[in-house]
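User: Predict the structure for this protein chain, please.
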Amino acid sequence: MQTSNKNSRDKLIFALDLGEDIDEAIRWVDLLHDHVGMFKVGKEAFTRFGTPIVSHILERGGNVFLDLKFHDIPNTVAQAAEAAVKLGISMFNIHALGGRKMMERAVDSVKNTARIMGIEPPVLLAVTVLTSLDDSDLEEIGVQCSTRELVLRLAVLAKNAGVPGVVASAQDIGPIREACGKDFIIVTPGIRLGDTVTGDDQKRVLTPRDAISRGADYIVVGRPIRMADDPTAAADRISEEISKGLAS
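Assistant: Here is the predicted structure, written as C-alpha cells:
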C-alpha cells in the first residue's frame, strides 16, 4: 500500500527555533511551507518573537505546534492553555511532571475554550522525559527508575488525566502503545538522518523511518533540515523516509 507524499508531509513538524529576527524565521516558513506539515514554535522563538510569529505562520496557511511545555500550578496552566487555544494553534504541550490535577485542568480548559469559540480543539500533548536525558541524568537528579520506566509511568498518568497524547522518544513508542492504545497520539523529537549534527545534545534518537515504523504519529525535525545545504531537499528526503516507515 502506497502512502501519498502529502500524508507523509503532514507527519513532519519543523522546529522553527532559529533566527535573530522575525523576518528570518518567516523566510523559513515561506521556504518550507509546502514541504512540512507543521511548524514548531518553541521557547526560543516564542521568547524572541512573541505571538506575532504564530500569526505570521497562520496567515501563510501553516499549522503551529506551540512547544512551551507548560508546567506550573493547575490554575496557571489552565489559564495558559486557554490563551494557547485562542491563538488558533493546532497543537501544544504541557509537562506530565506537573501531575494529574494540572493535566486534568489543562484538558478541561482546552475543551471549554474550544467549545465557546466554536472550533476544533488543538491537540494537547504531555511531555514525558526530554530526549536529551538518559538514565544517568535521571540518577543524577535523584530519580530512582530508568528513563523508560518514567516515560511509561508519565504517559499512563497523562492518558488517565484525559490528555490525548504525549511527546516521547521513538525508543519508547512500543511500551507506550501497549499501555495507552493505538489511538493515543505520539509525537517524537530527536530525529536524525544518520548524519552527524554539530553540537547535538540529543541522546535518545532514531531515523524518521524507524520512528514512523515503530508507530510515531508525528516527528519533529530541526537541525537536520536547518543545517542542510538544501533544506527543502532534506525535508523531502525525510518525507520519503516517513513514507517508507508507513509502508513497513
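Confidence is low (pLDDT under 50) at residues 196-204.
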